[in-house]
């Protein structure tokens, strides 16, 4: 497989500037109840997947508030299906969440690891949500 770039980003990043200049897809993650990002038009964006879940992890010592929506295994599988459907047509995957520090790096790292690519920089530079990363690795249909 050719080199694939997977780039985490914030809402502000995708609303204000182009992040790549190659054919790509965008996975946009937002908090439930918030509006979708106002994406800049990009002639090289092949497709966009919109998802909504909180930056949270299940806890054993207390119950999460009922309004907290965790990422689901179905959403992780949906991300994989979306990426694999487009993989021959793109050179990059941009993953955005609200701050670009936890959810999007977790999805990005999960994709990189699942594709057999190096995620070291993401793991060292960001704070990937461990629960989301585990869901991404578990949902990988290629394993």
Describe this structure in words.
The protein contains five helices and four strands; from the N terminus they run βαββαβααα. The chain has 143 residues and is an alpha/beta fold. The protein has a single domain (5-139), classed as Protein-Tyrosine Phosphatase, Chain A (Alpha-Beta Complex). Strands 1-4-2-3 form a four-stranded parallel β-sheet. α2 (73-86) packs across α5 (130-139) and α3 (103-114) packs parallel to α5 (130-139). The longest helix is centred in the middle third of the chain and has 14 residues, at 73-86. It is globular. The mean pLDDT is 94.
Main sheet specs? 4 strands, parallel
Whole-number tally of structural domains: 1
Rg, rounded, reads: 14 Å
Give the neighbour order of strands across the main sheet: 1-4-2-3
| Low-pLDDT residue spans | none
- What's the β-strand tally? 4
Determine the structural class based on helices, strands and strand pairing. Answer: alpha/beta
How much helical structure, as a percent, in the residues? 25-40%
Q: What is the count of helical runs?
A: 5
Give the overall form: globular
* CATH uppermost class: Alpha Beta
Average pLDDT:
94
CATH topology: Protein-Tyrosine Phosphatase, Chain A
Termini separation comes to 16 Å
| CATH second-level architecture | Alpha-Beta Complex
Strand content: 15-25%
Can you give me a brief rundown of this structure?
The chain is α/β, with parallel strands linked by helices and 143 residues long. The protein is built from 5 helices and 4 strands, in the order E-H-E-E-H-E-H-H-H. The chain has a 4-stranded parallel beta sheet.
């Amino acid at each position: 497989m050719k080199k694939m770039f997977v780039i985490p980003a914030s809402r502000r990043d995708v609303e204000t500037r182009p992040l790549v200049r190659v054919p790509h897809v965008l996975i946009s993650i937002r908090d439930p109840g918030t509006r979708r990002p106002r994406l800049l038009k990009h002639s090289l964006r092949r497709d966009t997947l919109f998802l909504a879940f909180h930056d949270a992890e299940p806890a054993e010592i207390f119950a999460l508030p009922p309004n907290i929506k965790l990422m689901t295994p179905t959403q992780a599988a949906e991300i994989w299906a979306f990426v694999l459907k487009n993989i021959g047509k793109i050179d990059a995957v941009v993953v955005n969440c609200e701050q670009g520090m936890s959810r999007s790096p977790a999805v990005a790292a999960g994709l990189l690891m699942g594709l057999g690519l190096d995620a070291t920089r993401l793991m060292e530079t960001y704070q990937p949500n461990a629960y989301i990363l585990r869901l991404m690795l578990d949902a990988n249909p290629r394993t």
